């Protein structure tokens, strides 16, 4: 293009250059390999070394996994079957998984009631869907709200009136707030919204539920907590802990940033105490010590106790993660919200919290993953999660001495859940990206 | 200091000032810890007045206008905005903030919301305007600041000048009676300053009560009916723009003007 006047020093461009497509040599697999694998002598050597390393590892592991026996009935028999294959490094005994997978999934839940656990799991996916994917109809969230009560009934059985009466407590709280808020202001409304359901649950709920059950039972066969185990137990504790720790963590983070001295002191004290104590001590408190503090004769379900402890533990970490997000927001965001006349709760809900949560997604998901994996610690206080069950399985004379296959399978299952969470968080980060 | 004056023809006859008092500040003092930022500020703003506040950095001019909508708390004296006294009473603060719009140096748009959502948020949640109506209002003001086509974009996709115009539109959507501008053009490229100033001039012509902290002396000459010069937390001099620029009384003002106009 002869758009410059080469003969003079002064320069005036009289045509602007049009945009052009990049040259074709900039793409393609050959180009990619040259850029990423063989860009220099050192990189070429490293690439070849890595390939060799992968080859060595996979050539040992893959045959071990692939030729494993699925049918043997004991470790001894399995070892013989595998030895006949003549592989240099033997092969896996997957037969232990084939024999015990139901136990690893359901624990000692009665086999004829497995369907209830399955239905609960499928409904959990339905309840999670609108939370995870905002494109789905918002009305589905109503199901998500009611799901915990339904799940409780399906898993533990008993009369349907128990969860209904529990839900009624929340309805009463709402009614009490709405009525008194109009008559006596927001403070009285909030206090009533807390007191009314607590009185209801502690004093009236049980007799009402029993009374209704004696008229119309609506009951299914109850299952006691001691029979819960396996991945079902991990998922119950993990999902409940995850669902509860985020809101509690958000409130704690807000409390820690609050101007109200007492609220702030309580939140800081709680967070620092919980973070300063190992989870395992909290679980021991839940399993043994807590009984000393309760009135004699009260039975307080062990799974419930463990869920409370795991939730409290995770929410302390969550609070710090969310606080990090809040601190990362420019003060201008708070000021702009104030200047527009939004009050504290509206500004938090609409402006600061959505942004803080978006910033903290990686930290939040890390905490979720940590919580889910920490559920294996309940094996120490005698709950039969997958790790707890391994002791059981390995105590069986048939499977005495099996290690890799059992723990490998459990690790794989945990990996699938945790990897799923991690991928979802990356999807969410991409979706919420609004800058360039 | 950039001095890009807007080239619009101004019809000053439209910019009438009423006798009604919009803001009254009496003997107001503020401290940051032990540091005395604002000292005995006395100021009356009539409805329809356009005031430019100038002064060196650290003179307390931003702090002064931030006290008017309580982004900063004053410790002594009174501030009465629109007949409501600013105290720690949250209800009064909310009432005042509803009537007082503010634009910031760094725009402070909400990056997680689209331009339209930025503009409809406060009308919907503070004034309880129905969504459809709020969107109509928002589009009206986005057209006024000449960027209706950006309504569905996010703030991060707009230039600085466009963002500041959105910020002005966002404030206007609340139909404020007073507008505060805190150095609205200081973070902008020279080419974008003009588009923001044009918007502000237009607003002035419609009789909006405006308090503007700025270094744009061209803007001050063109639309202000009073320039306030501050230094060390005090009002040093105030006058009509003509007098202020041509005939400064105080030595401090002369020095300031010679520095910002002298090159």
Molecular structure report:
Chain A: Pfam families: BPD_transp_1. The complex is a heterodimer of chains A (436) and B (263). Chain A is an all-alpha fold. Chain A has helices at residues 29-36, 41-66, 75-85, 95-106, 114-132, 140-156, 161-184, 186-215, 230-256, 261-275, 279-293, 302-328, 331-339, 344-359, 361-374, 386-395, 404-432; strands spanning 158-159, 219-220. Helices cover 71% and strands 1% of the residues of chain A. In chain A, α9 crosses α15. The longest helix of chain A has 30 residues, at 186-215. The two termini of chain A are 33 Å apart. The model of chain A has no long low-confidence stretch (mean pLDDT 87). Chain B has helices spanning 61-68, 90-99, 115-125, 131-144, 160-172, 190-205, 217-223, 241-246, 251-261; strands at 21-32, 35-46, 50-54, 76-81, 84-85, 100-103, 178-182, 209-213, 226-231, 234-239. Chain B has a six-stranded mixed β-sheet, sandwiched between helices. Chain B has a four-stranded antiparallel β-sheet with strand order 2-1-4-5, covered by helices on one side. In chain B, α3 (115-125) runs parallel beside α5 (160-172). The radius of gyration of chain B is 18 Å and the shape is globular. The model of chain B is unreliable at 1-5 (pLDDT under 50). The chains are: A mainly alpha (436), B alpha/beta (263). Chain A binds chain B through residues 330, 332-333, 335-343, 346, 350-351, 354-355, 358, 432, 434-436, and chain B through 69-71, 90, 94, 97-98, 100-102, 104, 106-112, 121-122, 125-126, 154-157, 170-171, 174.
């Amino acid at each position: 293009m002869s758009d410059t006047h080469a003969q003079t020093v002064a320069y005036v461009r009289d045509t602007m250059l049009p945009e052009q497509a990049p040259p074709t040599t900039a793409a393609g697999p050959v180009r990619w390999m040259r850029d990423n694998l063989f860009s220099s002598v050192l990189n070429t050597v490293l690439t070849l070394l890595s390939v060799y390393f992968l080859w060595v590892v996979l050539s040992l592991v893959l045959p071990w996994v692939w030729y494993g026996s699925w049918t043997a009935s004991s470790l001894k028999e399995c070892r013989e079957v595998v030895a006949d294959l003549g592989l240099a490094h033997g092969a896996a005994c997957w037969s232990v998984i084939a024999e015990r997978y139901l136990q690893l999934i359901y624990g000692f839940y009665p086999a004829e009631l497995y369907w209830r656990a399955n239905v609960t799991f499928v409904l959990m996916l339905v309840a999670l869907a609108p939370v995870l994917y905002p494109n789905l109809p918002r009305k589905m969230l109503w199901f998500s709200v009611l799901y915990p009560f339904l799940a409780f009934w399906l898993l533990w059985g008993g009369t349907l009136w128990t969860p209904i009466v529990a839900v009624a407590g929340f309805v009463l709280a709402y009614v009490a707030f709405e009525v008194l808020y109009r008559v006596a202001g927001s403070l009285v409304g909030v206090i009533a919204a807390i007191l009314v359901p607590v009185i209801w649950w502690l004093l009236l709920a049980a007799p009402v539920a029993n009374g209704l059950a004696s008229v119309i039972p609506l009951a299914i066969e109850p299952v006691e907590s001691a029979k819960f185990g396996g991945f079902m137990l991990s998922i119950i504790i993990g999902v409940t802990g995850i669902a509860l720790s985020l809101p509690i963590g958000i409130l704690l983070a807000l409390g820690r940033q609050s101007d109200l001295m007492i609220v702030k002191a309580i939140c800081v004290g709680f967070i620092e105490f919980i973070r300063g104590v190992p989870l395992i001590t909290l679980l021991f408190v839940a399993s043994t010590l807590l009984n000393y503090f309760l009135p004699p004769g009260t039975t307080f379900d062990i799974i419930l106790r463990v869920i409370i402890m795991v939730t409290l533990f995770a929410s302390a970490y969550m609070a710090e993660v969310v606080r990090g997000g809040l601190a990362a927001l420019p003060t201008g965001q708070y000021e702009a919200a104030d200047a527009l006349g939004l009050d504290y709760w509206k500004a938090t809900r609409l402006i600061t919290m959505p942004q803080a949560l978006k910033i903290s997604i990686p930290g939040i998901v890390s905490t979720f993953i940590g919580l889910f994996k920490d559920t294996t610690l309940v094996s120490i206080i005698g709950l039969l999660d997958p790790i707890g069950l391994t002791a059981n399985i390995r105590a069986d004379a048939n499977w005495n001495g099996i290690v890799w296959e059992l723990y490998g399978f459990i690790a794989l299952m945990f990996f699938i859940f945790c990897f799923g969470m991690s991928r979802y968080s990356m999807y969410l980060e991409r979706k919420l990206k609004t800058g360039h | 200091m950039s001095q890009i004056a807007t080239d619009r023809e101004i019809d000053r006859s439209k910019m009438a000032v009423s006798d009604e008092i919009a803001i009254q500040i009496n003997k107001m003092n503020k401290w940051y810890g032990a540091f005395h930022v604002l000292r005995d500020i006395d100021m009356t703003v009539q409805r329809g007045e356009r005031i430019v506040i100038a002064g060196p950095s650290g003179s307390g001019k931003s702090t002064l206008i931030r006290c008017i909508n309580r982004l900063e708390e004053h410790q002594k004296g009174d501030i009465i905005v629109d007949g409501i006294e600013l105290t720690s009473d949250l209800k009064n603060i909310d009432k005042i903030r509803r009537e007082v719009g503010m634009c910031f140096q760094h725009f402070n748009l909400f990056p997680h919301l689209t331009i339209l959502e930025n503009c409809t948020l406060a009308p919907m949640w503070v004034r309880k305007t129905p969504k459809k109506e709020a969107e109509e209002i928002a589009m009206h003001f986005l057209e006024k600041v000449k960027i209706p086509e950006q309504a569905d974009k996010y703030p991060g996709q707009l230039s600085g000048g466009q963002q500041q115009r959105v910020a002005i539109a966002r404030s206007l959507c609340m139909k404020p009676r007073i507008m505060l501008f805190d150095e609205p053009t200081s973070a902008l490229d020279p080419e974008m300053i003009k588009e923001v100033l044009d918007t502000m001039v237009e607003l002035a012509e419609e009789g909006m009560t405006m308090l503007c902290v700025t270094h744009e002396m061209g803007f001050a000459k063109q639309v202000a009916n009073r320039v306030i010069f501050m230094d060390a937390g005090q009002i040093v001099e105030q006058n009509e723009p003509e007098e202020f620029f041509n005939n400064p009384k105080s030595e401090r003002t002369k020095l300031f003007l010679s520095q910002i106009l002298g090159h």
